[in-house]
Amino acid sequence: MYKKLGLDPPDNPPIRLDRTKVRGEFGLQVDELSGQHLFACYQCGNCSSGCPLAQEMDILPSRIIRLAQLGQKEEIIQSKTIWICASCFQCTVRCPKGIDIQAVMDTLRQIALDEGVDHFGPDQIDSKHAAEVPQPGLVGVYRKLST
Amino acid sequence: MAKVAYYPGCALNERSSHLDRSARDATEKLGFELDELESWTCCGAVPPVSKERIMNLIAPSRILKDVRDSGRDMLITICDFCYNTLKRTNFSIRTDDIIRKRVNAFLADDTPTRTYLEEEKSPWQEYEGEVKVVHLMEYLRDELGYAVITEKLKRSLKGLKIAPYYGCVMLRPFDEIQLDNPENPTIMEDFVRALEAEPVKYPYRTECCGSYLSVSSPDASTRLCYRILSSAMKNGADAIVVSCPLCFYNLDSRQKVVLDAYPDFKTIPVFYFTQLLSLALGVGMDRQGFERHYVDVSSALEKIGNSGERDKA
């Protein structure tokens, strides 16, 4: 019956919020490391609509910010989004609240890396490709996506 | 001949040496010399992921301090990644006292002049962001003036429709880079006009080409490149001009993969801005390294050929 009404229950169970998560340790950590203020975000979605890589992401950038506000560390660290972000700063220049979203993404990557979630290692590139890519690409990818 | 300190960076030193060579040829014709630093290291390609990782700022700071110590106040780079990293590092040092102190503590430590520190007249001087980091294109616009280029043209590029591609790190983040309007830039369009070619405006000119995702998620980069390239072609471009080695790699070499993935796709030549500049200033075709391009550039060069050599007495 739910399906018929287009109201089928969500795949993921709803998240449970409490004081320890919202404005909790994780949010403060992100604020401090990135130098941004997460709660400035009012969810306009400009970052997601302008992101050239939004279609490759499982969680849109604006939702990542919302999840970070709500202290959902696990969900963010396990997402593809933080590894797909190419640090192109499109969101940063467009944010009407002046949040450096790219810095937040970088911070989330760093937290994930500190937790031991490595995304890309030297064994994942084939040598022929590695011999052709200009060095900024190689240096950039290892500095951003691995410890 | 006037000399300006020049930081080539790793890509220009090796894998994109044709960008380096065409830049040196062109600037020589324009009456100044790119004076490569006596010693330099990698700048780190990307600024650190957070302010906590101060270590990632040391390499670019050391390069900048060496320039200052040699008595120069301006540093030219061409690679957009180096430009972004050096300029943002400089910005951090200028604006953030804590970063400046921490960086200088490292720099003081790694110089053999450590013993002088205790003496009264110490040659050691804290680096405070005195050096001005400029992109070669910025130098051409602000210091030299595009009018000078037009005056010195030996070969007009009239008839060629060129789509400028800015990419990401040349313009953004705007607060720190301040090169041009990040949403509606004109620096490359004006450059193309200075060569008497016609700039093509297309919606994807400031969109990211995937950058280093070309290594970690090549499929994502392929889709982005297809969007950028086909948008430029739909708007009538004969060629694309870039300034960054990684943009060049993505937009040129990746066309091979784009061709396989999208049957309707047709290739389009990609140039470095310095190649077009040195061609227009009369440097020979054989010095441009066109054999290293994946896409054959002759379709675009034929159009220049038609407009003929330009006689300037």
Description:
The complex is a heterodimer of chains A (about 150) and B (about 325). By secondary structure, chain A is an all-alpha fold. Chain A folds into two domains: about 25-115, Alpha-helical ferredoxin (Fumarate Reductase Iron-sulfur Protein, Chain B, domain 2), CATH 1.10.1060.10; about 120-145, no CATH class. Chain A contains nine helices and no strands. Chain A has helices spanning about 25-35, 45-50, 60-70, 75, 80-85, 90-95, 100-115, 125-130, 135-145. The longest helix of chain A is centred in the last third of the chain and has 14 residues, at about 100-115. Chain A starts with about 25 loop residues before the first helix and ends with a helix. The mean pLDDT of chain A is about 90. In chain B, the strands form two sheets. A four-stranded parallel β-sheet of chain B has the order 2-1-3-4. By secondary structure, chain B is α/β, with parallel strands linked by helices. Chain B has two domains: about 1-135, Glutathione S-transferase Yfyf (Class Pi), Chain A, domain 2 (Up-down Bundle), CATH 1.20.1050.140; about 155-305, Rossmann fold. The chains are: A mainly alpha (about 150), B alpha/beta (about 325). The interface between A and B is large, with 43 and 48 residues.
